[in-house]
Amino acid sequence: MANTATSKKTRAATESAVTGSTGGRRRVVIENVRPQIDDGRFPIKRVVGERVVVEADAFGDGHDRISCVLLYRREQDQDWQELPMRLLGNDRWRAEFRVAEIGRYRYSVSAWVDHYETWRHDLERRPDTDRDLPMVLQMGAALIEAAAHRARGLEARRLQAAAEALTGEAPLVEKRHVAGDDENARLMHRYAERRFIAGYERELTVVVDRELARFSAWYEFFPRSCGEGSHGRFADCEPMLDYIAGMGFDVVYLPPIHPIGHKFRKGRNNVLTPESHDVGSPWAIGGPEGGHKAVHPELGTLEDFRRFVASARARGLEVALDIAYQCSPDHPYVHEHPQWFRHRPDGSIQYAENPPKKYQDIYPFDFECEAWESLWTELKSIVEFWIEQGVRIFRVDNPHTKPFPFWAWLIDDVKRAYPDVLFLAEAFTRPKIMHRLAKLGFTQSYTYFTWRNSKGELIDYFTELTRGQGREYFRPNVWPNTPDILNEYLQFGGRAAFMIRLTLAATLAASYGIYGPAFELAEGAAREPGSEEYLDSEKYQVRRWQLTRADSLHDFVALVNRIRRENPALQSDWDLRFHAVDNDKIICFSKTAEDLEDIVLVVVNLDPHHRQSGWVELPLDTFNIGTERPYQMHDLLTGARYLWYGARNYVELDPQSGPAHIFRLRRRVRREHDFDYFL
Amino acid sequence: MANTATSKKTRAATESAVTGSTGGRRRVVIENVRPQIDDGRFPIKRVVGERVVVEADAFGDGHDRISCVLLYRREQDQDWQELPMRLLGNDRWRAEFRVAEIGRYRYSVSAWVDHYETWRHDLERRPDTDRDLPMVLQMGAALIEAAAHRARGLEARRLQAAAEALTGEAPLVEKRHVAGDDENARLMHRYAERRFIAGYERELTVVVDRELARFSAWYEFFPRSCGEGSHGRFADCEPMLDYIAGMGFDVVYLPPIHPIGHKFRKGRNNVLTPESHDVGSPWAIGGPEGGHKAVHPELGTLEDFRRFVASARARGLEVALDIAYQCSPDHPYVHEHPQWFRHRPDGSIQYAENPPKKYQDIYPFDFECEAWESLWTELKSIVEFWIEQGVRIFRVDNPHTKPFPFWAWLIDDVKRAYPDVLFLAEAFTRPKIMHRLAKLGFTQSYTYFTWRNSKGELIDYFTELTRGQGREYFRPNVWPNTPDILNEYLQFGGRAAFMIRLTLAATLAASYGIYGPAFELAEGAAREPGSEEYLDSEKYQVRRWQLTRADSLHDFVALVNRIRRENPALQSDWDLRFHAVDNDKIICFSKTAEDLEDIVLVVVNLDPHHRQSGWVELPLDTFNIGTERPYQMHDLLTGARYLWYGARNYVELDPQSGPAHIFRLRRRVRREHDFDYFL
After folding, report:
1. Predicted ipTM?
2. B548-563 residue pLDDT tens
3. Cβ of A409 under 8 Å from any chain B Cβ?
4. Domains in chain A and their CATH numbers?
5. DSSP assignment letter at B290
6. Does B413 reach chain A within 8 Å, measured CB to CB?
7. Between residues 175 and 214 of chain B, which touch chain A (CB distance below 8 Å)?
8. pLDDT by residue (tens digit) across B432-455?
9. Number of C-beta neighbours around residue A292 at 10 A
C-alpha cells in the first residue's frame, strides 16, 4: 500500500499495437484497466488526499515474466511518476497513488516482458548439476551488463560488478546470491530493457476537487423571508447566518437572487391571478432591472450581495447560488436576443408547456437555435460573473432540460480556469440521464432519497449509490425536503419523521442538505392532498419563521452536524454497510474510516408513530472485534453507553423520545489487565 | 422480431459530440451499445443466418421524444441498412438484424430528437378547448411540409396533403386523425429532420463464419497408425475415413503431417534414447525432406495428401491440419534463417526449456528477433500454402506461446482473403490468455472441459461459457481426451466413463471432438500414476487399433452424433439451462432451439461405478408446458418413451447399461379430443 514514487520518470507508451519497428514485438497485453468510466470517455472523481487504486489485467505470451507499472501525473506536467504494480493473481495487477492537488491527473499502465526476472526464475529452478549453468549465468551477466550501460555512477558500477561476479571465478553459491539479491533486482527493474514496452491504449483522467465536494452539509433558505418588514434584504440576513453556522452547516444555498418578472407572475400558492404586492417566484428570472447578472433590488445591491458572501465566509459558510437558465418574459435577453428563443407561428415566443399545463411566466432557451454558440457563451459568462463576485458553488436548476454537450463544455471550461468551483445537479429525472450529467462533470447530484423511505428502498438505493460503478463519478447529495418537495412521509409523520429523515440523510450520505427553516420547524402542511407542494410555499410568498420555537429541531440538527464533523467515518460514502435487524421498521448501517480507527453504527426506527425493537446483527470480523469480550457502543446523540456482547444485540427506539442511535463503536471494554480505559 | 430493412439507406453519423456547426445541437446521447467487446476493439462472432440483437441506451435532454435506429451493412458496402429500434423502457432500445453472408458486417446506432413525435404526443394531451390549438396544428403542418420537401412522388404528395389538412377548414377531430395516422408517422420517420442526428461514436464489427464454426464434431487420429505395415500412408486411410464418416463426424483433424526431425528424436513413451526405427513426434517438425510446407515422405506425397482431402470431402468430412510453429533442429529454417531463432552465448540455438525440463528436439522461434517481419510473413505463407491444397480448417498448437499481435495480424489477413477458413486455438493456459486469443480472432477454442468432471464444476463452467460476455467471441470446442490428455476420470472410470464424457461433450457443447480410436476403444492406460500421458502414446509410436472390437463405442458415438444432427437444439450453445436434481451424481440440463420447436433434455449419471437415481425438477413455464397434462419424454438413445407429470419426475441410471438419457421433450400426450398423436 506504500505510495513511494520512484524518482525515475518515463513517458507512457501509447503507440498502437502493431506500428513501427517494434510494434510486432510488443508482446504484453494490458486490458480491463479500472477505475474507468465508459471506455475512458469520462474522468473519475476524487477529492484532495484520496487514493486512486488502479487495477489492470496484464499478461504476455509464453512463460516469460512480465513487469507492470502504474503511471500518473498532474495533467499539466510532462513527466510521469511511476509505481510498480503488484500481481494479485489471475493476471490482475494493482497499485495506487494519492491525488495531492485540486485539478486533473492522468493515469495509465505500462508493462513489458521482463527478461531479467524471467532469467532469475529460470535459474532458481535449475539444479546445480545442470550442464548449461555456465552459459545461463553468462546470459544473465549480459542482461545485467546491458542495464549497467543504461545506469550511471554508483548504480552502474554496482550492476557492472554483479555482471562480472556471475561470470568470474566465484563458487556457484555466490553467483546464485547475486541473482537472488533484491537490490540488484530493484536496479534491474529501474534500468530494464523497455524496448518493447506496451502502453495501455489510453490515458485515464481523474478530476480532483476540494474536500467539500465529498463532505458537505447544505442549508437552503429564502433571504426575502429574513426581513423585519415585507421583503427581507441581504443586510437583514446576518442573524440567519449566525443561526445556520450555529447548526454546523458548510454551505448556504440561495434560490435565484435576480430581478423577478412581472408578466404572468404567479401569486401565492401558484395562482395565476397575483395581487399587486405578490413577490413572485425567484425562478421567473429577469425584469427591467436586469437578468441573470443582476441582483433583485428588493434584496439589495451587488455590493450588498458581496458583503453577504463575506459575512457568510467569516462564519465558515460558503454561499451557493442557483443557476436557472430560463427567463421571465420581462428578461432583457428576450428583447436583446430574441434569436435565443423559439418563436411560434404568430411571432410570439414559446413559453414552457407540459400539456395541459402552461407556464407562461417562463421562456426556455432554444438550444437548437442558429445562434447557439453566442447563447452558450453568454450562459457561461453568467457563471463567470458570479465567480468574480466570490461564489464558488452553483446549484444548477433542471440541468436535464439543457443539452448534455453544453454542460460538458461549460463545466470543463469553468473548472479549468477555477478548479475549486463545484456544481450540484438538480436533475430529478430518469436514472441514465442523472448519471450522464454526473459523468460529464457535475460535482454532486441530487438523488431519489426523498422518495426512499422504507428499509428495503433505502438499502437497495444506497447499495447502488455506494457500491455500483457510478460511485466513481456520481456523488450523491441527499435532501429530505426542498422547496419543491414535501414528501408524504414528512407530511404525516410529525416531528419524529423529520428527526428520522435528518438522521438518515446526514449519516447515509457524506453530503446532504435541508431546506429550512421549514425543515427544522417540521413544517408538514401540503398545499392539497396528494401534492408534494408546500402550503403557502416560499416560492411564491415571503414567510415569517419562528426560529426560536421550543419544538424546533435546531439543536438536534446542530448535534448531528457536530457528530459528522467529529467522525471521519461519516465524511465519505464508500464504506457504508447495512446490517441485519429482525424488524423491518428498524434500519441499521455502519460507516468506517479507512483504517477502522472510526466506526460509526447508526440504528434508526423508520416508524415515526410506534416504538420498535429488534435484534441487530453485526459482522464483528469486519470491525476487527473478537467475540470473547464485550465492546462499548457510545450513543453520540444521548451520551449513553451500552455494553454489547457478540454479534447479536437488542435495540429499542421510541420515535417520540429518540428515533435513532448514532453509535461510535469503541473496541474494547476494560479488563483488570488493561491500563487505559478505552482504545 | 421482424427484420424488415427499409429500402432507405443513410450514412452513420460518426462525428464527435461537439464539432462543426451542428455539434452543440446534437442533443441525443447514445451509450452502452451491446453486444460489444472491450470498447469495440474486437468483433463479435456469428455464423451465417444468426441474429445480432443490438441494444443501446439513448436519450435526449428535456421532454422531447427521440427516435433511434440500428444501422448495419456488410463491411464492403458503402450504404447502411436501417431498422427502427424499439424502446424497452428505462431509455433502453433494441432492434436486431440477421447476418446473411460469410465475412464481416458493421453495425452502429443513430438517434435524433424527433420533433414530429414530440408534437404528436403534445397534441394528444391538449384538450379541444386549448386556445393554442390552431397554432399548434400550424406548427405540426410546418414539420410535415418540411418533410414533404425531403420526400418524392406519391409520398411527398401524401405528406403535403396531410400538412394542408391540418391547417384547412376540416373539423378538429379530422385534424387529430391526421396526426394519429400511422402511415403519416411512418413517412415522417423516414423523412425526419435529421440535421442534428447523433451517431454512436464507433462502428462495431461482427465476423460471420460458416455454420461449422458453431456446430462441429471433430475426430483426431494419426494417419501413420492406419497402415498394414509399419507406417501408415495417406493412401491407407480410406477405410479410416469410412469409419469416421460412419460415426457422423464433420472434421478429421490430423497431427502435423510434415517431415520429422532426427536430432534429439524422442523414442517410445518419450524416452531420450530412441531406437533406430522409432518414428518420432510429429510435432518435431522439419528434416532434410522439408519443413512446414512438406509432407512426411512416409505418409506420402503432396499429391497423396490432396487426394486424401478429396476422399474425405467425398464422405462429407473436412480435413483440419495442425499448425505448430516450432522446428526440429533439422528443419531447413534453422540453416536458412538462423536469425529467426535465439542464440546462446556459445553460438548454439536455444531449444525449448521449462527448467528443469529440456526439450532439445524443439527450437522455438524468437518472435523478438530483428527479422520478425520476415518471420511473420513466412509463417503466414505456411497457412496459405495449405489453403491452396484445399485445407480450410487449422487447429493451432500452443498459440499462447506466440505473440498476440502476430495472431491478430495472421488471422485477420487470412480471413480477409479466405473468409471460410476456421482456426481452433489449442491454448490450455490461463483464462485471460485464452479469452484474448478468442477475441483477437480464433474461431473456436479448446476449453477446461477435460478437467471439469463433477456436477458443480460442469454447471459453473458451462454457465460461464454460455452466459458470460465471453460467449460473443469464445466458441468452446470441448474434448474429453486428446493425445496429450488422458484425464484420471477416464483412466479409472472404465467404459462407462467414456460414454458419460462423450454424452456430456456432445450435448453440453455444439462443438466437440475426440482423439480416436483411443477414445471409442476406451483406452484408459496412463504412462504412470499421476500422469495424464497415454501409455504407448501415439505421439511417439505407431499403434494398431482393433476397430471392430465388440466393446467399441463406435455405435454409441454414431448414435449421439446422429441425435446432434437431427436436433437443432444441440447445434448451438446459448440456450443451455441446468436443472435441479436432488442427487449430486446426476446432472440435468436442457437445450432449446430458438422457437422451442426442439427441446432436448439430457440427464447423465456422473458416477461411472454405481447406479444413481433422483428427482429432476423442470421449469415447465420455460418450455411452455402446462401442468394439467402429462408430457412425453422420448429417449433418443434407447427409443424408450416415458410419460412425465408436472415439474418433478424420477430418473434412475445404471452406468453399465446406460449412464445417460438424451430426451426429446414432446409437448402433449394424446387425449380423447386430440386428432394427432403428438404435436
Report:
1. 0.92
2. 999 999 999 999 999 9
3. yes
4. 1-114 (2.60.40.10), 120-191 (no CATH), 577-678 (2.60.40.1180)
5. B
6. no
7. 196
8. 999 999 999 999 999 999 999 999
9. 26
